[in-house]
Amino acid sequence: MDGNTLWQALALMLVIEGLLPLISPSGWRRMFEQLLALGNGQIRFFGLCSIVIGLVLLVLLA
Q: Is the whole-model pTM more than 0.90?
């Protein structure tokens, strides 16, 4: 993987993350209100799950 691929991946991530607020701003706002109600441990668990899934995908796709 070269530096250009990394920048392309980051750009694609921004595009994907921007879809929900573009398509459904009220749904995006409700989602963040629900996230604020979670405890720190729950947020860390979801972050850890996201990292593990991302790493598994990287290994499978590389």
A: no
